UniProtKB/TrEMBL annotation:
Transmembrane segments: none annotated. The lineage of its organism: Eukaryota, Viridiplantae, Streptophyta, Embryophyta, Tracheophyta. This is FAD/NAD(P)-binding domain-containing protein. Keywords: FAD, Flavoprotein, Oxidoreductase. The gene is LOC115721327. One of its GO terms (cellular component) is cytoplasm. The keyword Lipid metabolism does not apply.
Length: 367
């Protein structure tokens, strides 16, 4: 006789939560709670903004890969020892809980709305003469690359408060990216920040003046914020997991990816305090370790059999520069141009990510 399946609840259907859900759906009585009905591949967002058809493969309804589990499209707002409470007032019981809420983001609830949003952003870019990008980390650089290649006639300014672009990678890679942007006529201002006000809406009828910390003015018809987002853990401060958060709001986990001192609660992805850079491909590795450990525990295996997660230093970091080029930093060298571009920039790993979720890499099924 089949053993009763244990109730697993995953909160957050992003990079880590979606892969975990897909991996354990036939081994558990599974519920995925996510604020939205779909998974968006985050690193494909900028391409989808300059080419909305790209979003048809990178925005995936949870139901497409999760055929054997419940999906609750709502925010989790509280946790007790046995249940999760959602914003809509539903109580969802669990035997095992996984927190995978990553970083905060403000995106629409349905896939159709998300695709429409890309369309709106694309029209905004198309009708602007001048565009300001605030933030010169990898996301700001990648967005500048997409716009510079697909809309070469735009006057593009990127303002970054640090002394160089992308401080998380080496000087060589940062200066290759800077040279590439400059060659595409992007004006890059380093060591200054844009003074932003709460009411900084783009002006529908024309140009706006943005002030910088150095007293300069930047004219732009529209602007995009590419500054860091906070960890999505403020809601956890009101729950029984509040004492498991570190000073930066990250959940403290042990080597098996269990939240410390909690046998039936795991955390994966950007929300964890694992000392490594916060990247999607590492979040996917967390998901696979958590999947293995949950299966072992639910099968009644010994604790000593659980897999340990070792924090990693990435072997390579790649930043795309438009559709064909990229800069790649390896431990032994840094290269830029069309060779790393062939690896990352053409498809932005969208086919590969879809495949991991058991989907056709190239399908473009619309709702
Ligand atoms: C523009 C951009 C480009 C990037 N480029 C790369 C790259 O090239 N390579 C790379 O490896 N990484 C990249 N990253 C980083 C990567 O996307 C993250 O490391 C990864 O998404 C982390 O996965 P996660 O599952 O922890 O969180 P997320 O993917 O952020 O998912 C969190 C999920 O939780 C949901 N959620 C949040 N709060 C709640 C709540 N209270 N209740 C219910 N649901 C909730 C959210 O809606 C979301 O679905 C990029 C990120 C961005 C934004």
């Amino acid at each position: 006789m089949e053993r009763e399946r244990r109730r697993v609840v995953i909160i957050g259907g992003g990079v880590a939560g979606s892969l975990l859900a897909k991996s354990i759906q036939f081994n558990s009585d599974l519920t995925l709670i996510d604020e939205k009905e779909y998974f968006e591949i985050p690193w494909a967002r900028w391409r989808a903004m300059v080419d909305p058809s790209f979003g048809e493969r990178s925005v995936i309804n949870h139901r497409d890969y999760l055929t054997n589990g419940r999906i609750v499209a709502s925010s989790a707002i509280d946790i007790t020892e046995t249940e999760v409470l959602t914003a809509e007032g539903r109580l969802i019981p669990y035997d095992y809980l996984v927190i995978a809420t990553g970083h905060t983001d403000s995106v629409p609830k349905t896939r159709t709305e998300m695709l429409n949003q890309y369309q709106t952003e694309c029209e905004k870019i198309n009708s602007a003469r001048s565009i300001l990008i605030v933030g010169g980390g990898p996301t700001g650089v990648e967005l500048a690359g997409e716009i510079a290649v697909d809309f070469p006639d735009k006057l593009l300014t990127l303002v970054h408060n640090g002394p160089r672009l992308m401080e998380f990678i080496g000087i060589k890679a940062a200066s290759k990216a800077l040279n590439w942007l400059t060659s595409k006529k992007v004006e890059v201002k380093l060591g200054e920040s844009v003074i932003l006000n709460d009411d900084d809406e783009d002006n529908a009828n024309g140009v706006k003046l943005f002030q910088t910390s150095r007293g300069e003015s930047v004219k732009a018809d529209c602007h995009f914020l590419c500054t860091g987002r906070p960890v999505a853990s403020s809601w956890l401060r009101r729950t029984l997991l509040k004492s498991n958060l570190d000073k930066r709001g990250r959940l403290m986990v042990n080597e098996n990816l269990r939240v410390k001192n909690r046998n039936n609660v795991f955390a994966i992805g950007d929300i964890t305090d694992i000392p490594e850079i916060k990247q999607g491909y590492l979040a996917q590795k967390h998901a696979l370790v958590a999947a293995k450990n949950l299966k072992l525990i639910m099968d009644g295996e010994k604790e000593s059999k659980l897999e340990k997660y070792e924090p990693r230093t990435p072997k390579a970091v790649m930043v795309s520069l438009g559709r064909k080029e990229a800069v790649a930093q390896f431990s032994f060298t840094t290269v830029s141009g069309s060779v790393p571009g062939m690896v990352k920039s053409k498809d932005l790993f969208v086919g590969r990510t879809r495949k991991k979720l058991g989907l056709q890499p190239n399908a473009t099924l619309i709702d």
